[in-house]
Amino acid sequence: MKIANLLACAVMGLGSIGSVAQAAPFTGVYQFTSGPTEVPVQTGMTFGEFTRLGDLQPVSTTGDFTNSNWNGNPDPAGIEFVLTPDSGYVLDITGIEFRSARSSDGPTFGQLLVSVDGFTTASQFTWNPPTSIGTSTWDLADLTNITGPAIFRIYGYNSTSDSGTLSLDDFTISGNLVGSAVPEPTTFGLLSIAALGILRRHR
Prior knowledge:
By secondary structure, the protein is of the alpha+beta class. The chain folds into 2 domains: 1-20 and 182-203; 21-180, Galactose-binding lectin (Jelly Rolls), CATH 2.60.120. Helix content is 15%, strand content 45%. The chain is built from 2 helices and 13 strands; from the N terminus they run H-E-E-E-E-E-E-E-E-E-E-E-E-E-H. The chain has helices at residues 2-15, 185-201, and strands at 23-30, 41-42, 45-47, 51-53, 57-58, 65-68, 78-85, 89-102, 109-115, 123-127, 134-146, 150-157, 166-179. Strands 2, 3, 4, 7, 9, 10 and 12 form a 7-stranded antiparallel β-sheet that branches. Strands 1, 5, 6, 8, 11 and 13 form a 6-stranded antiparallel β-sheet that branches. Strand 5 (57-58) and strand 6 (65-68) form a beta hairpin. The chain starts with a helix and ends with a helix.
C-alpha cells in the first residue's frame, strides 16, 4: 500500500511538468500575392481559401482580391472563408484588420460576418469602402473558446453597376491558440525514473 501511495504521489507531482496548456498568440495575413489560394500557415489551425459566393465575378489584378457583380442578381454575392482549429486546440479571435477600396460605381457599404454555429448567430462588422485604399479594424471580444469551424462571410452593397468593384488586401486575423494539456516526452521519462527508484528502495 505504501509503495502504491508513493507511486501515485510521483505521478501527480511529475505529471504537472510540461502538461499545462499554453496560449500562443497568432497573426495570419491573407496577402493575395499569388491569388486567393494563398493562405496563412499556422500550427494548430487551418486557414481556408477565400471563395466566391453567388454570382460574384473575379477581376484580374495583382496582389489583392478584387471582384465585381456585388449586387448578386439573382443570388446574394459575397466571399466566404473558414478558420478551423485542429483537434485538441481552442481558438480565440481577438482582432481583424484589412485594407479595402472600391471603384466609383462599386459597393458603398460593406458587411463582415463571423459565425461559429453555422449562422444560427453571427458577429457583425460594417464599414464604408473608400474609393482610395483605406484600413478597417475590428476589435473582437466575443469570439472565444472556438473548437470548430469559424465561418467568415463578406458582402458589399449599393453598387451602381454590376461592373463596380471592391478590392481587399492584407486581410489580417489575430488571436490566441491554446493546445491540449498533453505531457511532454521528458515528463514520461521522469515518471519512469521516479517509479523505478521507488520500487528499488522497497525491495
